[in-house]
Amino acid sequence: MKVAAPVSAVTEKALRSRMVPAKAVDYIARRMAEMPHEYTPAVVIVSDVAMVVIAIVAVAQRDGFFPPGVALLGGLITILPLVAMLFRKDFIPTRGQMFFRLSAGAIVGASLILLEPAYADVAPFILVLIVGEIAAMASVRVSLLVAAVAVAALIVPALLGRLEFVPVYITVTALGWLIGFVLQTQLRLLEQERLAQLTRADQAASAERQRISREVHDVVAHSLSVTMLHLTAARRALQEDNDTAEAIDALIDAERLGRQAMSDIRRTVGLLREGPADHAPEPGVGDIGTLIDDFVRAGLPVESAIRGNSKLVPDTVGLCLYRITQESLANVAKHASGARTRITLKMGSTGSTLIIGNDLPRKVFGQQSQGGSGLIGMQQRARLVGGTLTAGRTRDSWQVRADIPYQPENSAAGHTCTFGEWR
Prior knowledge:
- The chain is built from 13 helices and six strands.
- By secondary structure, the protein is of the alpha+beta class.
- Helix 6 runs parallel beside helix 8.
């Protein structure tokens, strides 16, 4: 499986910078695309040119040009498949036919040339090149079959007394096969690594989209829940008490939270855009108190006890604890508005524990009893930082508990939040 074009942008740019005609560059790219692996043009061109040169030298060693003889016929048969592959557009309908025509032409041509003996014969190197080329492109089974036929083509003239140094030629042929096999193996590993990189990139993009989706969900759920509480308070103040001042205060808080939510949504969605983005600081454990105050001002009775050193909590864990608190309070405001809620956060040197419980109304709300996308998102957040989150009914309340172990990022002493009593 190819994961990139055989002729890379760098190679194409190099060809064009050397004043190679555009049609020639496009033609090379198209022909290279027909090759089984991502070989550069230089490798293929050098191999083919070397085979043509060796065939010409082998014929010249036998004075086969004038008058024409069997050696010249063998040289032409060796070169013909290479010329056809270069100029005929339909020469490579399938890879199997390409391997067969290249190997058959080279082996038959070399065998005809070897019918006439020559001193320091170079004709066997035609077989060495074709064995290495097939080993670099075809499967191991096909390349071993071609290598066996090539060795037989060396043994036959040796038995007829027309070829010397046969063990040397066989050894070089085996070395050619090994080089081709190693080259193909390296290219296969490179292709697999590129495919793995693409897979990892897709997985990272998917994880980032899921993270942004959770951020948007948390921001929208929190802002809408608190805003609805403020609007409800404003309506009751006007409808029941005719208290304009209290209604205005509630509407001002709703407007402030709405603007803050819009800013958070713009920042989060901005992560989807390409290019540098303006990254605002992510909320952490230090912002949980402000978050609770927003819900309290909106009319949700919340009691909290926060103990421990906030500087020991890593930023990723702090964001996780903040979002879990935010989602849990939004769920309470949505499904059990007015229910008394208790929050306990213990921050230690090796981990943090967050417990959020609220009284159940007379009519149990179905979303919390069954679980929804918010609960799934909280569980995913906890898992991403190595923690666990459980949620469910106790005797008379609904409880969310998150246990998150960690290695402290900063062991320096920091601000310690200690509230011994519920507030």
